[in-house]
Write a structure and sequence with these properties.
The protein contains 24 helices and 23 strands. The chain has 649 residues and is α+β, with helices and mostly antiparallel strands. The protein is elongated.
Length: 649
């Protein structure tokens, strides 16, 4: 159904077309020297001027007072005044109507290109239902409020569930097709839909801090922050149009004052030159292209923070990726539990599960899940310390030997000398591509845990597609070198760096930037912020789960679809190519008509028609970015099938 804005636009468009059909015969007859309406021609001109004067005169006079000579409205006033002075009223009328038509089409296309962004706010929830109080505007809801969400109602702000189980449709945030099962203490997001049972949820954030609010702010700001090519074209237009106005003045002064040629003829050529000099096609095509590309990206669940990052992602020569949760599914499973002190395995899982429940790392979650599968009650700990990028330490309140240190081999080696026989077991597991976690007490290493992760089925094809684009793919991982090499070999990566802490990843990114110039960093929102800052473009994957990712990333994938990276690069390159083509076409057509005017063989109709239709063409060409296809849709279908099978089970 058409919106109110669209209905008003349709009415105005019909009116302009009717007037155009009335005037066009007069213009055609005028070109052949036929003028027969007399006083009625003047009356018709006056009516058209009364109808459309607000569209031109007010804006033009405002630009004159501001000395903004590059404004098309000011040029239109000069052209209409000149045509009226010369008695060419059909020319003046066609200028007014064609200009109004061009403005209407431009407004419509900009409106349509912004539509994908406006949809973010049009469908968002406006109120929430607080328990025992009734409805409250979402910006008035405070942290800690208990809200009620019934079946098929939108969740208004970010919360955690305190009562009930539900299926939640998160398509609006993550763009994932299947609903997610949610239960007590799990997080739910604003703008998602409860599609099953009654829920009670407690607010954890104010509306302005919610995931949706951040996405909306980032998306709208991205269209306002200009890319380099936008700044260049605006700067070019700023100097270009005044220069042409000086040339138009000289086109009258030199032939008339110095050569005594006919004033009316050269005044006519000068007006023609001014009309064609208007840079509307040049300036307009760039923002429409950017809006269209950002709108397309948004529809795929990609949030681009600034327009300059849309430009930058198309220039990258290398991309660095983490292993876990990027190339792999990030759902590690315990493959080996090796006791070095003959303790009971369930007691061990209870102890380290109690430690890991405070950590957000995927490996920590897999340990906790393993304990939960066995219905083991977790031990309580105190003095919990997380050492960034290495591991964790704590004191167990249940075990006799209270101290626990859990993390990578390097981390545990800082506290203990590891016997050679234990090292051999570690190396053997690493040769199998497993990630090794050691657990120690005060005195020694007591357990070895082997972790395996599953490679994403689309990782290999994504890497191949990036390499076809002449982009070097590099793996930077905290995991040991051998585990990284096995995964890298499977997906086709030859450049791999293992055993990297967050600060070491940043050093590697710095080296890549020096070598390749423009480098992207793909991360999962955990621990890689220093490397992200040093990269040309930081891309966070699955960013909906991490506030830090949304805040720090330049581009955020709100889902975990790695195959969107080649699509995004292709979209950026298409946007850049379309803008270059539009710029060349606009300048080329203007140059041709300008030269015709300089040599005295152009006319106002040619200038108007060429300017309007070049503008229309470059805008339509820019709007093609709305329909740039994701060539990796086969991954989308596979993912949906896998998700469906998983949901069925």
């Amino acid at each position: 159904m058409a919106t109110f804005k669209e209905l008003r636009w349709i009415q105005k468009f019909r009116m302009i077309i009717i007037w155009l059909l009335c005037i066009l015969p007069l213009e055609i007859l005028s070109l052949y020297g036929q003028r027969f309406l007399g006083i009625w021609e003047r009356i018709l001109f006056l009516i058209i001027w009364i109808i459309f004067w607000k569209e031109i005169l007010l804006k033009g006079v405002k630009s004159l007072f501001r000395l903004k000579f590059s404004d098309i409205n000011l040029l239109m006033i000069i052209a209409i005044g000149g045509a009226s002075y010369l008695g060419e009223l059909p020319e003046a009328m066609i200028i007014i109507v064609l200009f109004a038509l061009g403005e209407m089409l431009e407004d419509y296309w900009i409106m349509k290109s912004k539509q994908a962004l406006e949809n973010l706010t049009n469908t968002m929830p406006k109120i929430g239902f607080i328990k025992d109080i009734w409805e409250v505007a979402i910006d008035k809801i405070t942290i800690g409020s208990i809200l009620i969400v019934k079946s098929w109602e939108q969740i208004p702000v970010d919360w955690k569930i305190i009562f009930g189980d539900a299926l939640v449709d998160e398509t609006t945030i993550t763009w994932e097709p299947l609903p997610k099962s949610k239960t007590i203490s799990e997080a739910v997001f604003s703008w998602t839909m409860n599609i099953s049972w009654y829920l009670e949820i407690e607010t954890t954030k104010k509306w302005e801090d919610s995931t949706l609010a951040k996405i909306i702010n980032i998306t709208y700001n991205s269209s306002q922050k200009k890319a380099n090519y936008q700044r260049f074209i605006q700067k070019f237009a700023h100097y270009y149009t005044p220069s042409v106005m000086v040339l138009a003045l000289l086109l009258v002064v030199i032939p008339v004052v110095f050569l005594w040629w006919d004033f009316n003829h050269w005044f006519w050529q000068a007006i023609t030159l001014l009309i064609i000099a208007c840079p509307c096609a040049l300036v307009l095509s760039t923002p429409v292209a950017v809006f269209s590309a950002i709108g397309n990206a948004t529809s795929h669940g990609i949030v681009i923070k600034w327009a300059k990052y849309l430009e930058e992602i198309g220039k990258i020569k290398a991309i660095a990726m983490d292993k876990t949760r990027t190339l792999t599914k990030g759902e590690p499973q315990i493959s080996d539990i090796i006791s070095l002190d003959w303790d009971d395995e369930n007691t061990f899982l209870a102890c380290i599960g109690g430690m890991e429940q405070y950590s957000e790392h995927p490996i920590a979650r897999c340990v906790v899940q393993e304990a939960q599968k066995r219905w083991i009650e977790l031990h309580k700990h105190k003095d919990f310390v997380s050492v960034w990028g290495k591991g964790i330490k704590s004191e167990c309140l249940i075990c006799k030997d209270t101290h626990r240190c859990l993390g990578s081999a390097k981390f545990v080696w800082e506290e203990h000398n590891i016997p050679e026989q234990i090292k051999k077991k570690i190396y053997a597991l690493e040769e199998e591509g497993k990630t090794i976690i050691l657990v120690s007490s005060h005195q020694k290493v007591i357990w070895i845990i082997g972790i395996i992760d599953t490679i994403r089925q689309e990782s290999k094809d994504t890497v191949n597609e990036l390499r076809k684009m002449s982009i070097e793919v590099v793996m930077l991982t905290w995991d040991h070198q051998k585990a990284g090499e096995i995964i890298a070999k499977e997906v086709g990566i030859t450049n791999i760096k293992g055993w990297l802490l967050p600060d070491q990843k940043a050093e590697e990114i710095e080296k890549l930037v020096k070598e390749y110039g423009s480098v992207a960093m793909l991360w999962d929102g955990v621990n890689d912020a220093p490397a992200l800052v040093l990269s040309s473009v930081g891309i966070a994957m699955g960013a909906v789960w991490s506030d830090m990712a949304i805040e720090n990333a330049d581009i955020a994938l709100m889902n975990d679809k790695i195959w969107l990276i080649p699509y995004l690069i292709r979209l950026s390159r298409n946007c850049h190519n379309i803008i270059k083509f539009n710029t060349a076409l606009a300048i080329g057509v203007k140059a041709c008509v300008l030269w015709l005017a300089v040599f005295g063989i152009s006319n106002l109709s040619l200038a108007i028609v060429s300017d309007v239709w070049v503008t229309i063409f470059v805008v339509i060409n820019s709007l093609r970015l709305f329909w740039v296809k994701n060539k990796s849709l086969k991954f989308e279908h596979k993912s949906k099938k896998d998700d469906c099978c998983e949901a069925c089970h």
